[in-house]
């Protein structure tokens, strides 16, 4: 019997080492690219399935041989990591759910808590488990789970400080501070009854406009398949490598479950002609979901590459890879949120509606001069102003210094316009992208300067769609404008328009105002439905917008942009609207301009409902 126990123990250890080696291969694979290491992932899933099954079948012998409960928890945690890694690469909700299932099982079965040992290594494993579970719970909007795990993480850090005084746990204290700061900034934790950021068929599919959207068909229709999300600000709210703005955009570009229970999906790989399922919960850990976490009837989410503090070269490399792999008749959404020139960072970024009104003359002068330069149909050559002169403004992707290697110029994006792009630029230098794209569009002939080919209009392929943020945000309370505390206002309007409206006007929402919140949401839904119909029926809608209007995610962004533009236009001082109002290129129909009655009346109705109309100026309502 002793020999049999030794064989079981040795076999188990061999399986653990084999699975760990395979795990190490895939752990650091890039999270972008359509077929990045898929073969290896299937091997790792297979290895861990074999390992988990083996420990289940030989649990008694392994426990007698010295198997600890935390070792079982570590295996389950690795499986959770694998599923979360697959989610970041594919954006498939089922993988995120699987990761949550395993982490929740570890927590409920107390695999780590059951071992009261003075083992620093085990304590670090438990700390990392809590951090990973928090990230998955955040993305999945499991707010109660987040609150529970945060308390356990706090207690564990305190316990580690008390029992391992010779070890510095400063980094883990910062992790606790990060998640608490994130929870304070994320309105989901303050308003549990608020509508989800994700696209919900219940809330976002408007009955009055659905027939018009269904019948709408442009000359060319693009499918939204891929997105690149990047947020890079100093001291911005974040947890781990997920910033608040990227988190909001990530959820905004995914489907919300409509109530179906989780159902297994079969993997494509086969062994000996038999399909092997590595994605179901029942094969690895025996638990059932009691919440409606996924809905197999929903279309797939667009893939999202989320970049945390990338270098300029890394961002460009990711864009190149995704553009290269993009299927035909598809569009890429690129979301870039960053500060402009480093010199802009120390400048006052905000004005309040009740405070002094300072004008950034240098910015306005630069902006106006660019507009004047583009009024001519041809670019200047032969010693006059050329393409490089329009690269004075840029996004700053750096933590220190003012080096050119940290500057993302609008010209860096131009090569990727060979594919359809939907650009969302959230920056105090967003106007630079407007200028260069205008310049780009007007180059319709082949120019040669000193033997160097500049560009040819026909070779660039596609005209980009742009949503550009204002130079600066606008709030009734200037303290709300701190991006390091609340995230970007423009991004907030695109992802949670009602909450952004309330934040801007200083209206405090809470769960005690459920009826007020519900009626306000109904006002917005009615307005958005009307605007969708107008877009679908418009004869002046540019093809750039028409070809993406059938996509629910992009259509919702366009509608919310119209709302954001109208709100800020009516809220900011009219003489300074150029600084505080966002811009889109090409222009949307005038029937949905900020001054249009159908738009202003809706904003006015919402403002009156929340008793904040005194802060607005309306022309026709």
From TrEMBL:
InterPro entries: SCAI (IPR022709). Pfam families: SCAI. One of its GO terms (biological process) is DNA-templated transcription. One of its GO terms (molecular function) is transcription corepressor activity. It comes from the Eukaryota. This is Protein SCAI.
């Amino acid at each position: 019997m002793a020999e049999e126990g030794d064989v079981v123990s040795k076999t188990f250890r061999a399986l653990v080492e084999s699975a760990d080696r395979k795990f190490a291969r895939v752990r650091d694979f890039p999270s972008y690219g359509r077929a990045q290491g898929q073969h290896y992932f299937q091997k790792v899933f297979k290895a861990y399935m074999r390992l988990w099954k083996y420990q289940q079948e030989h649990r008694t012998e392994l426990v007698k041989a010295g198997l600890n409960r935390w070792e079982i928890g570590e295996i389950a945690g690795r499986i959770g990591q694998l599923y979360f890694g697959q989610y970041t690469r594919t954006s498939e909700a089922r993988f995120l759910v699987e990761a949550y299932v395993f982490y929740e099982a570890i927590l409920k079965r107390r695999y780590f808590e059951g071992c009261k040992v003075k083992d620093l290594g085990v304590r670090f494993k438990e700390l990392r488990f809590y951090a990973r579970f928090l990230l998955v719970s955040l993305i999945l909007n499991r707010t109660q789970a987040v609150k529970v795990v945060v308390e356990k993480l706090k207690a564990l850090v305190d316990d580690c400080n008390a029992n391992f005084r010779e070890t510095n746990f400063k980094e883990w204290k910062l992790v606790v501070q990060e998640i608490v700061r994130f929870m304070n900034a994320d309105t989901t934790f303050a308003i549990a009854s608020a509508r989800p950021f994700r696209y919900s068929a219940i809330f976002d599919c408007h009955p009055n406009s659905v027939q018009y959207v269904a019948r709408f068909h442009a000359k060319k229709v693009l499918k939204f398949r891929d997105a690149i999300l990047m947020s890079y600000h100093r001291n911005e709210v974040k947890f781990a490598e997920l910033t608040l703005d990227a988190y909001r955009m990530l959820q905004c570009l995914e489907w919300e479950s409509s109530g179906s229970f989780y159902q297994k999906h079969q993997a494509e790989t086969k062994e000996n002609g038999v399909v092997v399922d590595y994605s179901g919960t029942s094969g690895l850990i025996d638990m059932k979901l009691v919440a409606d976490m996924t809905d197999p009837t929903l279309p797939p989410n667009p893939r999202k590459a989320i970049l945390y503090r990338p270098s300029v070269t890394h961002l460009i490399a990711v864009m190149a890879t995704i553009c290269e792999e993009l299927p035909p008749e598809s569009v890429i959404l690129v979301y870039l949120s960053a500060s402009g020139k480093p010199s802009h960072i120390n400048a006052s970024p905000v004005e309040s509606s009740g405070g002094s009104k300072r004008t950034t003359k240098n910015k306005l002068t630069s902006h106006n001069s660019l507009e004047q330069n583009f009024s001519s149909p041809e670019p200047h050559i032969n010693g006059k102003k050329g393409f490089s002169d329009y690269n004075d403004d840029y996004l700053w992707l750096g933590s220190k210094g003012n080096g050119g290697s940290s500057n993302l110029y609008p010209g860096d994006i131009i090569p990727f316009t060979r594919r359809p792009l939907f650009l969302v630029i959230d920056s105090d230098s967003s106007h630079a992208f407007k200028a260069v794209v205008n310049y780009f569009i007007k180059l319709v002939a082949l120019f040669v300067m000193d033997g160097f080919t500049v560009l040819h209009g026909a070779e660039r392929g596609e005209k980009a769609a742009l949503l550009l943020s204002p130079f600066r945000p606008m709030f009734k309370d200037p303290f709300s404008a701190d991006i390091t505390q609340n995230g970007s206002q423009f991004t907030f309007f695109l992802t949670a328009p009602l909450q952004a409206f309330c934040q801007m006007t200083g209206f405090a929402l809470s769960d005690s105002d459920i009826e007020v919140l519900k009626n306000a949401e109904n006002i917005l839904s009615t307005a958005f439905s009307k605007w969708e119909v107008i877009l679908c029926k418009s004869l002046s809608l540019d093809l750039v917008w028409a070809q993406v209007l059938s996509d629910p995610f992009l259509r919702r962004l366009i509608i919310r942009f119209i709302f954001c533009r109208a709100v800020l236009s009516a809220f900011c001082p009219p003489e300074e609207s150029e600084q505080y109002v966002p811009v889109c290129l090409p222009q949307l129909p005038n029937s949905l301009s900020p001054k249009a009655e159908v738009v202003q009346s809706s904003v006015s109705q919402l403002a009156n409902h929340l008793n904040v109309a005194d802060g607005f100026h309306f022309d026709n309502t």
